[in-house]
């Protein structure tokens, strides 16, 4: 069953199955067809997200266990609401609560789970969970020998107990416990099938595949049939019993064989199970047609919205102002190259070295003469130049589409000033395409798999978690799935993308906020408006910086905060500032300060310039955090009054943008996903801020009295009630006209008049059913003073030309209920509301 709309709930952090069950009446009233649950299987103790699974065959007792899950499921079924589960096939937690992982540590390759995890068994299993080297921790007494009732002798490290291999201590337990000196423990450690080491060594020496660069998550070999069965037993049982209607696949690009996995899952789950994948598509990239799924979770849709909400005519002006403030012009291509180079050389050094070693071995086996340095250069350049998250080669080689992509990348690599040696680059190409001797094909297949599993994390960490925290010109564009080198924005291209979406993945999710987005949808909607009034933003920014200049410090490594971080701080604050917050609200300022400071620390470290997660620069961080704290101090009234007052035009224009993107999401091809609380306003920052629980009690109360009168009171724009009302209205409409929204054509309509560039107008048409949507864009000049003082300036004298298929019908306005007969045109002049959504009543 294809959902009409999903509602994402983040379990844990206080959200349990019973609490979710209590929300079912609200979701039903809102117009939701399916609850979309974050991972529910047993995760590591204290998990805040559930992606660190320790037991995929158990529903987590921490959020209610199986009994609580059954109560929630019964409440959903009674209300006619389906259930979609977020599942995690790529990785599991390395917590010792994970009995499979613990057994592997205890028994090494003799463990029945030794092949469950993506481990290189040619060397000892590396356990990079120490604060210092093993020798240093041992010397200071942090590692001791103890007896565990379940595992026998263990190394105890701050109450984490690593079980020793039974054969290494057989018959020696009492003697070892009697004299556990440093030399004895050192020899005992060397006798294990594993090695404890500092967490700092993980990027270089890791013997197993991890999730991105997180050593708390170990890769699972789900391509193995036995592993698939073991990790999906409960999942499939819930699907087959009818309790679960759909599955969302986390990080599908991390798998060794995404197509093989999805085919196996589809066969096991059946044809009616709704399946989507978390997959980031580059601009213009499409999902592989052969994947047996409904589509992605919708990151690319967020990028599509920027096409119509960014002012392309003024974008260059904002960019120029940004460069003047920083005193430099950013070269985005070089910045991306630098970020990817850093990831290859440091964060993923171990994964890169594994590939390099395989390439060197294959060179020898195939008689290719090239030294290690040449191979290093060729492999590094190929990885850096890769423009998408991954290819989807099989054991036999790459697909035709992937070979075409590879040759495009090779052309880019060879066009550089210092291209790789042809022999080295050609060898890597032949490895990827499978053009080697028969004896080398297995090793080449391993190289291909590891290469494909590296390009995704490399892209994600380089772009989303490095470049997007370095290049802060337009924070609204620095989003998951965003283009690191944005080109011109275009209303025509937006319409084209919607038509492609209708043709390629009409049942995919449409997301605007998730647990992974860098900022909430309404923060982005507001920040888009900076491109409409860049000079006004620049004037305000200069004044604010001067007001707070006394809190700037000069350190040995430069000014703190520097110009780039200062730009980021004020823009981030402009995005997160609640629409209802006033400088007099001390409690509100304190709440915002706590959230904002967490973001600032993360942003500074993710940028990896003046400070880092690996080697933090406490001097710089403390000064910048103190500066940020001063910005929100209740005593800093001169700044706060000025900031709040001059932000208001951006706030109002952002609220109109918010409504526009909401209407588009709810009428576009696909399945709209409402992230918890985002039916109201979501001004969140990056995680963990975006995972805070909304006020569900207030949301349910507000929905009961929602109506068109809300549009006339700006307070209800600011508290989110207008957005919630529009959301509920359109969600309910989707339930009444499922085929219109699933199969209906996307028809851009021609607009003429003095506001023709400021309107987005299209129709969804399916046989006799039709919907006309007209929503505003680029309205900073219209909304600067008020959102409720009349809408004549919004529409101007614009006219919409109707094609023959839409002419001669009677239409009903969705919000005013007024009916009208339309022939060749729709006159928008004098429209009563800020939205014009017409449904044919024939």
UniProtKB/TrEMBL annotation:
A single GO BP: trehalose biosynthetic process
CDD domains per the UniProt record, alphabetical: AmyAc_MTSase (cd11336)
GO molecular function, one term: (1,4)-alpha-D-glucan 1-alpha-D-glucosylmutase activity
Pfam families assigned: Alpha-amylase (PF00128)
Classification via Gene3D superfamilies: Glycosidases (3.20.20.80), Maltooligosyl trehalose synthase, domain 2 (3.30.1590.10), Maltooligosyl trehalose synthase, domain 3 (1.10.150.200), Maltooligosyl trehalose synthase, domain 4 (1.10.10.470)
Domain Glycosyl hydrolase family 13 catalytic: 11-734
Superkingdom: Bacteria
Name the UniProt record assigns to this protein: Malto-oligosyltrehalose synthase
Protein species of origin: Pseudenterobacter timonensis
Gene responsible for this protein: treY
């Amino acid at each position: 069953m294809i959902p009409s709309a999903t509602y994402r709930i983040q379990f844990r952090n206080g959200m349990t199955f019973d609490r979710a069950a209590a929300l079912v009446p609200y979701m039903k009233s809102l117009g939701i067809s399916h609850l979309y649950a974050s991972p529910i299987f047993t995760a590591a103790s204290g998990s805040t997200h559930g992606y660190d699974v320790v037991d995929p065959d158990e529903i987590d007792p921490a959020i209610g266990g199986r009994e609580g899950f059954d109560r929630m499921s019964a409440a959903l079924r009674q209300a006619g609401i389906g259930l979609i589960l977020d599942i995690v096939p790529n990785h599991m937690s390395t917590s010792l609560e994970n009995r499979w992982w613990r057994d592997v540590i205890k028994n090494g390759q003799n463990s029945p789970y030794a092949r469950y995890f993506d481990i290189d068994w040619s060397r000892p299993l590396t356990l990079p969970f120490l604060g210092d080297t093993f020798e240093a921790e041992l010397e200071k007494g942090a590692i001791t020998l103890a007896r565990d009732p379940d595992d026998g002798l263990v190394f105890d490290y701050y109450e984490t107990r690593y079980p020793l291999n039974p054969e290494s201590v057989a018959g020696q337990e009492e003697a070892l416990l009697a004299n556990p000196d440093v030399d004895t423990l050192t020899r005992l450690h060397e006798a294990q099938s594993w090695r404890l080491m500092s967490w700092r060594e993980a990027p270089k020496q890791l013997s197993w595949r991890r999730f991105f660069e997180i050593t708390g998550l170990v890769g699972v070999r789900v391509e193995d049939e036995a592993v698939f069965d073991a990790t999906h037993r409960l999942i499939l049982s819930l699907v087959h019993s009818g309790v679960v209607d759909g599955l969302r696949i986390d990080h599908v690009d991390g798998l060794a064989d995404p197509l093989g996995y999805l085919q196996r899952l589809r066969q096991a789950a059946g044809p009616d199970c709704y399946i989507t994948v978390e997959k980031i598509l580059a601009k213009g990239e499409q999902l592989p047609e052969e994947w047996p799924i409904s589509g992605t979770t919708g990151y690319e849709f967020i990028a599509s919205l920027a096409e119509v909400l960014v002012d392309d005519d003024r974008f260059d002006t904002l960019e120029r102002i940004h460069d003047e403030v920083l005193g430099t012009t950013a070269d985005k291509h070089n910045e991306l190259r630098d970020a990817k180079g850093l990831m290859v050389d440091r964060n993923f050094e171990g994964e890169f070295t594994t590939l390099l070693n395989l390439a060197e071995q294959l060179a020898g086996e195939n008689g290719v003469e090239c030294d290690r340095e040449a191979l290093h250069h060729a492999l590094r350049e190929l990885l850096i130049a890769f423009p998408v998250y991954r290819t989807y080669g099989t054991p036999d080689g790459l697909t035709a589409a992937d070979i075409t992509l590879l040759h495009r990348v090779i052309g880019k690599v060879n066009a550089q000033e210092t291209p790789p040696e042809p022999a080295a680059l050609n060898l890597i190409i032949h490895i990827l395409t499978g053009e080697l001797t028969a004896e080398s094909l297995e090793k080449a297949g391993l190289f291909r798999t590891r290469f494909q599993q590296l390009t995704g994390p490399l892209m994600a960490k380089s772009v989303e978690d490095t470049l997007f925290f370095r290049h802060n010109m337009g924070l609204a564009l620095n989003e998951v799935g965003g283009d690191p080198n944005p080109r011109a924005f275009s209303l025509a291209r937006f319409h084209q993308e919607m038509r492609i979406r209708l043709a390629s993945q009409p049942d995919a999710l449409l997301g605007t906020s998730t647990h992974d987005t860098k900022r909430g949808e309404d923060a982005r909607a507001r920040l888009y408006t900076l491109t409409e009034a860049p000079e006004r933003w620049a004037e305000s920014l200069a004044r604010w910086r001067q007001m707070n200049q006394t809190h700037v410090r000069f350190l040995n490594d430069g000014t703190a905060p520097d110009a780039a971080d200062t730009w980021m701080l004020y823009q981030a604050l402009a995005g997160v500032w609640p629409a209802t917050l006033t400088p007099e609200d001390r409690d509100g300022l304190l709440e915002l300060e706590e959230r904002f400071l967490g973001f600032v620390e993360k942003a500074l470290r993710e940028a990896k310039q003046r400070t880092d997660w690996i080697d933090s620069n406490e001097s710089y961080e403390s000064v910048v955090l103190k500066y940020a704290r001063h910005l929100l101090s209740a005593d800093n009234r001169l700044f706060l009054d000025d900031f709040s007052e001059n932000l208001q035009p951006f706030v109002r224009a952002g609220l109109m943008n918010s409504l526009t993107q909401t209407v588009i999401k709810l009428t576009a091809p696909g399945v709209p996903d409402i992230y918890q609380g985002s039916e109201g306003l979501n001004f969140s920052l990056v995680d963990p801020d975006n995972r805070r629980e909304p006020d569900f009690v207030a949301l349910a109360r507000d929905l009961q009295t929602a109506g068109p009168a809300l549009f006339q009171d700006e307070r209800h724009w600011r508290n989110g009630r207008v957005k919630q009302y529009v959301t509920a209205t359109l969600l309910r409409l989707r339930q009444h006209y499922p085929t219109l929204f699933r199969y209906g054509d996307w028809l851009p309509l021609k607009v003429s008049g003095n506001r023709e560039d400021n309107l987005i107008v299209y129709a969804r048409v399916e046989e006799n059913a039709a919907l006309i949507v007209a929503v505003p864009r680029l309205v900073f000049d219209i909304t600067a003073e008020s959102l409720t003082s009349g809408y004549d300036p919004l529409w101007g004298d614009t006219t919409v030309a109707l094609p023959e298929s839409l002419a001669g019908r009677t239409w009903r306005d969705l919000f005013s209920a007024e009916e009208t007969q339309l022939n060749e045109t729709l006159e928008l002049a004098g429209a009563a509301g800020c939205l014009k959504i017409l449904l044919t009543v024939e």
